[in-house]
Each structure stands twice: as C-alpha cells, then as structure tokens.
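Hi team, as promised in this morning's meeting, here are the two structures we talked about. I've kept the exact order from the run log so nobody has to guess. The first one is mostly here for context; it's the second one we should focus on when we meet again. Sequence first, then the predicted structure tokens.
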Amino acid sequence: MSIVELKNVRSPALHSDGVGGRSFSTVTLHSVARKTALYKIFWLVCAELLFVLCSLPCQAYEEDLAADPPQVRALLNQAAALKLSGEIRRAATLYCKASRLGSLEAQYRLGMLYLSGKGMLKNLAFAYSLFSQAAQQGHARAQDMLETISIRTSVLPPCMV
C-alpha cells in the first residue's frame, strides 16, 4: 500500500468508533518525520562539536605554533578567531597566507577546512595535498589525516600556487 493510499486508512486501535480520528498514515508519517529530524539534529550537533573541539587550543597546537615566527602566529590566531566567529572564507585566506610563509600548522588547518567543507567548498584533493605537505615536514596530526583520505594527489589550492 502506498503512502497516498494510506491517507484514508483509519486505525481502529486509535479510535474504536472509527469516526473523526486521525488516520494511521498521519500518525506514522509524523512519527517517522520526528525521528528523522531528531537524528539529523543529533548528527549536526555531533559534527559541530567535533568542529569546535578541533579548533580549541591544546598542548600539541601550542607546540606546533612554537616553531612559527611571531608574524605567522598572529595570522594563525586571527584565522582561528575568524573561524570561530563563522567567517570561514576569511580564515581560509589567512591560513593560506601563513601556509605560503611556511607554517605547517596553517597547512594542516587549511586542509581541515577543505576536508570539512564547512563554510567553503569541500575539496578532498586540496585537503590531501595540504596534509601531505605538512606531514612530509613532520606535522603529526597532518600525517594522521592522510590515513583518513583515500585520494592521492598533489593539486594545491589556487592560493598556494
């Protein structure tokens, strides 16, 4: 029985007299829609939490920044603030500028933006290339990310060329 056909079916379990009640399909569709919406909200919250947690400073982050000159650290801090405020494209521009100045952390962060596709176009090829460059120079988290991406390429984002 199709969904269209179910619209006119009355549920005797809901209404013993079978008159004036809600149809079975209405109850079922509302229940399915509610569950689907709850699952979507749950996974969106999980994804957002992961995105925020990846942005938080930690000891490894501080160690990665220690190798960068003050000018690059300033760019990274500005980019992190922009990212947290939702200005992802502006953050990506600063990460790219810091990457051109040789920052491994900036290459990793820019790769994470391309990998997530949050606030900008998702591009696994760019993410892989950025992680690869940073990993070849000793960035441990970039090396870990390489294992999660199945694509292999050396194409860099236009801002890096």
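And here is the second protein, the one for discussion:
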Amino acid sequence: MESQYLPEIKKGLDKRVAFDSKHVDFMNSDLGTEVMRSLAVIHELDNKEALKIAMFGAIQGKDNNAGHDHSAAGHEHKSLINSRDDIKKVFAEFGVDAKQYDDVADSAATDKKLSLWRQQQVMYAVQSVPAFIVNDKYAINLNEMRTLDDIIGLINYLALKQ
C-alpha cells in the first residue's frame, strides 16, 4: 500500500489535515532496529520519497514494487539488507556518505524518534501496516474500508472533527 495507494490517500486529504509517517518494527532484532533507524534518517534528509522507495525495495526485494505479502503463494524474496553497511550502500546511491549517515543515525534525536515510534506501536496496538492513527485518538479499521475514498473520507472526518 505504501507505494501503490498512499500517494493517492495523501492527495485526497483536506489541506488542513497534516500527514506524518512513522515506522514500526515487527522484526524485533538488531537488524530491525537498524532498518527503523534508516527510516528515521530518511525523515531528516532531502529526496525522502526516492530514498524510502529504494530502502523498501532493498528490504523487500527489488522486484517487489507492489508490496510484500508473506502469505502469497510461492512467497520468496531475498533482502539486500542484512547489516548497517548494506543500508549505507543504499544511501550512498543517493549521495549520502557513510559518515553523514552514521552522524544522523547515531544522534540523540534519532534515538528519541525510535523510542517514540516503539511507544506508539505499543500504545496504538499496531499489528500490521499500513495503520492510520488520526489525532492520536482514532485507529482506522481498514477491514471495514471498501475503497480508498472510504479511507480518505474517514480520515478527513475524524481529523477535522471538533
């Protein structure tokens, strides 16, 4: 959904509605933390969208542009990301050198962001992605949504609700 539908959802949001992406860690491993850290670094850099697409492509497999479905028949992929060095290779393709990456990745601000994302993942009981939390109050039940317009309409309604 990230690459397929999220741009359309964002475009359909009322101009008064702010949209903020946060990332979750279902891996619960050192590598999962490094991946989350890389996504936090992306938030701090220019060319965010291209970097994010490249990172998700490297994580999910280059030919997996439409998403990553572990339940799909014949599911098999080879992640290009197995370490921080692999992550830095992706960033280097976008002009971010290893020192710049490490400086941002190892900063107190990045540690704070990861802590917040983990707290919110637990607080909102995020079990799958995407998940939409509106005004830190409402979790959209995507199982009840039939169309993108349903999602957009509900987010707008809840976000602007007095």
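Starting points for discussion:
The first helix runs from residue 6 to 12.
The mean pLDDT is 87.
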